[in-house]
Write a structure and sequence with these properties.
about 25% strand, iron-sulfur, TIM Barrel, alpha/beta
Length: about 230
């Protein structure tokens, strides 16, 4: 009986240190504060949201189970200082928090790309949380967890993907109401299939809005090539 219990406990302990991953790869960071830096991307599988412009729907399902220590070994093999944990929605897997902590302990510059629909309070304070606030055009605006905004620090970043002029006006109001530029970097990106980048840039300049315009550098360089 004790042997059975011990085996069950050992199995549970092993499972507690696993995450389901879609891919790990080395590329250039294409967005946010660290754009341009060689970065190891750890893409976790699964997402509870279905944004209409999502370009990583392949990460919704499938994937392989990885031990967290094996993830760290694979990250180290690539030899980059920056690591981005992304998805899908990485925080949908609770053990993501343990991975983030271990990456920080190992000395990496760590960022987390999260939808903003899940609580970020448990994320290691050393991580730069890139919070993607969902606009009405995403189709998931009702999923925003607004309590997250009170948790932001200067280390963090807030991103809006803009699909239309209505989205821009909505995002501008959120930025102003919550005084986000006083808290952290604020990033506006055009939805690649719905809004011309120049149009969004013109709106930002005309309003002198204190946000950073960005486009997806990796898409300009490699298009939709996997692992880039």
């Amino acid at each position: 009986m004790n042997d059975v219990a011990d085996a069950a406990a050992a199995s549970a302990a092993g499972q507690a240190e696993r995450l389901k991953l879609t891919e790990i790869f080395l590329s250039l960071q294409g967005e946010a504060r660290d754009a341009g830096w060689p970065t190891v991307f750890v893409r976790l599988t699964g997402c509870p949201l279905r944004c209409q412009y999502c370009d990583t729907a392949y990460a919704f399902h499938g994937g392989q189970w990885w031990e967290i220590d094996a993830i760290l070994q694979e990250v180290a093999r690539h030899g980059a200082r920056h690591v981005c944990v992304t998805g899908g929605e990485p925080l949908a897997q609770k053990r993501c928090l343990a991975l983030l902590e271990k990456l920080c302990d190992a000395g990496y510059v760590v960022s987390l790309e999260t939808s903003g629909a899940l609580d970020i309070a448990g994320v290691d304070a050393r991580v730069s949380r890139v919070l993607d606030i969902k606009t009405p055009g995403s189709g998931e605006v009702q999923r925003n967890l607004w309590a997250n905004l009170a948790l932001l620090t200067a280390r963090d970043q807030v991103k809006f993907v803009i699909c239309s002029r209505a989205d821009y006006d909505w995002a501008r109001a959120v930025v102003t109401e919550h005084r986000l530029p006083e808290v952290c970097d604020v990033l506006f990106s055009p939805s690649a299939t719905q809004l011309a980048a120049r149009e969004l840039a013109d709106w930002i300049v005309a309003d002198r809005l204190p946000v950073r315009f960005q486009v997806q550098l990796h898409k300009l360089l490699w298009g939709e090539e996997p692992g880039k």
